[in-house]
Design goal:
Layout lengths: L11 E3 L4 H6 L5 H7 L4 H11 L5 H14 L5 E4 L7 H12 L3 E4 H15 L2 H6 L5 E11 L4 E11 L9 E7 L4 H11 L1 H14 L8 E7 L6 E5 L2 H24 L17 H15 L1
Parallel strand pairs: 2-3, 6-7
Antiparallel strand pairs: 1-4, 4-5, 5-6, 7-8
């Protein structure tokens, strides 16, 4: 098992790093950058950094699917129960989470096994995530000299570069729908444009490759567990770059001042009703006048 010094600063490519140790590293991650640029983001980021994010059952399902598909990840604890409503099931779930393990129900364990089998039958996804073509769950740490910020990322699957120095990054996502329009909404909602730009920066910045195209492998969580491999267009990647630049600036400024503001800590904000509400009000007034 590999250990890494949690002292900030230093470039490293670390394999077999325990997930909990990766999360404790103080360098900025893509997930943190995504939080920072939202309204109230700095305060929320600082809280989650110090207290962690609350566990959710859907996170456990995603971790279990990653484990089944990639063959690595937190240890799974299979709970023989129909649901989480009984006290015994809840206690087992909470104990597993407290020890860094992932609790899943028996039915969920069977589902993720079927999902992994379906993915291995997909002609493109199976090649992208084939164990012989790269390494799963590799942790990257890089000092971004341009922004003077230490950054980190945990790559789902780090493939071997080709002869031209191109390294294709593949990231596995579970989803309710992998249809093109649903994927496009997910990219916007979950900041996947930022993730693609962030991980590319890490790989190129660390000298692992000259270029790093980023592919998402989306898989639905309901039978027949359809798989869809997608790549973001250049405009999306550019938006991700711009968002990341804002996040890096915020992180540097807040860190220097040790001040992580919320919405408007030093003033009072005047809000205006959304346009749809104003239109609805006008229509109601017109109806009332008739």
């Amino acid at each position: 098992m590999t250990t890494v010094d949690l002292t900030i600063g230093g470039d490293a490519v670390v394999r077999d790093l325990p997930h909990e140790q990766y999360l404790q590293h103080p360098a900025l991650s893509f997930s943190g950058a995504k939080v920072l640029i939202k309204p109230g983001g700095p305060a929320r980021y600082a809280y989650e950094r110090d207290h962690g994010r609350p566990p959710k059952d859907e996170f456990d399902v995603g971790h279990a699917a990653h484990n089944a598909v990639l063959g690595v990840g937190p240890e799974l604890v299979i709970v023989d129960a129909a649901d989480w409503r009984t006290n015994a099931a809840k206690e087992t779930r909470d104990l597993a989470r407290a020890s860094g393990k992932v609790p899943i129900l028996t039915a969920t364990a069977a589902k993720v096994a079927d999902m992994a089998a379906a993915l291995r039958r997909h002609p493109v996804a199976a090649r992208l995530l084939h164990p012989g073509s790269g390494e799963a769950e590799v942790s990257l740490f890089w000092h971004d000299g341009e922004h003077d910020v230490d950054r980190r990322g945990r790559v789902d699957f780090l493939r071997t570069p080709d002869s031209d120095g191109r390294l294709i990054l593949a990231d596995y996502k579970t989803t309710q729908s992998a249809a093109p329009d649903a994927v496009a909404r997910s990219v916007w909602s979950f900041g996947y444009d930022q993730q693609a730009a962030w991980y590319r920066d890490l790989v190129v910045g660390l000298g692992l490759a000259k270029s790093a195209p980023f592919l998402f492998v989306f898989q639905e969580v309901a039978p027949p567990y359809l798989v869809h491999v997608v790549q973001l267009d250049a405009a999306d990647i550019m938006r991700g770059e711009e968002k990341n630049a804002r996040a890096l600036q915020l992180f540097r400024e807040c860190s220097a001042a040790n001040d992580w503001p919320g919405f408007n800590d030093y003033g009072i904000t005047t809000v205006t009703a959304p346009a749809w509400a104003a239109r609805q009000y006008d229509l109601e007034q017109q109806d009332g006048d008739q």
